[in-house]
Amino acid sequence: MSKFTVPINMNELSQEFKSMYVQNLHGKEHMTVMGAVILATEYGIQSIETDLIQAPNAENGQTAIVKAKIVDKDGRIFTGIGDANPSNVNRMVAPAIIRMAETRALGRACRWLLGLNTLSDEIYVQEPITAEQINTIRELIKLNNLTKEQSGKIFTEITGKMSLANATKDEAYLYIQALKNLQKVKDDTNEM
Which of 13, 69, 75, 105 is deepest in the core (most CB within 10 A)? Predict the structure, then answer.
């Protein structure tokens, strides 16, 4: 049983905990991934899953994208998306791009569970999906000959949402990448 409720009040955390797991960035307190995982685990987690959405390769600038999904003790679902590439990690971490993307995704999902809604390594505002992204999605759905049900299932699997109406720019990006990858698989299959 947890000793606290969510959302977490950072001022109520012990100084010992804060000294180990909270960093001050640009005058604001940010929970580290380890701190968020510790508190989320203490609060109560039923399951954690991570999925590699995009593997790093030359075509995507060696960018790995991972989605983390956490189900809390009450069955509520929290997701986080993390990316990593050689330009946004330090030199020592560069050989572990996929693990860093997973760590970032897990940290974000834990912060959502805890009600912190902040990131440890950057200030981040979730922008809404753009009209250009919507048009690209429509074109890719048509190109892939997907039904509304098929395209909706793919979108829901990636974002956990039922509709594009409240999608973020980042979620739309992941959806577009998945649709492009689906087309690439179809093209590769047709060449055989």
Answer: 105
Amino acid at 190: N
Contact call for residues 152 and 162 (beta carbons, < 8 A)? yes
Tell me which residue of 21, 46, 16, 51 sits closest to 116, measured CA to CA.
21
**Angstrom distance (rounded) from CA 96 to CA 109:** 20
Q: For residues 18 and 50, what is the distance between their CA atoms, to the nearest angstrom?
A: 27
Q: Are the C-beta atoms of residues 185 and 177 closer than 8 Å to each other?
A: no
Strands 64-72, 28-31: parallel, antiparallel or unpaired by DSSP? unpaired
Angle between helices 148-159 and 169-191 in degrees, nearest 10: 120
**What's the token pair of residue 129?**
């999906």
Chain segment 151-171, per-residue pLDDT in tens: 988 888 777 777 888 787 777
CB distance 78 to 113 below 8 Å: yes
Does position 139 have pLDDT exceeding 90, yes or no?
yes
Contact between residue 66 and residue 81 where contact means Cβ atoms under 8 Å apart: yes
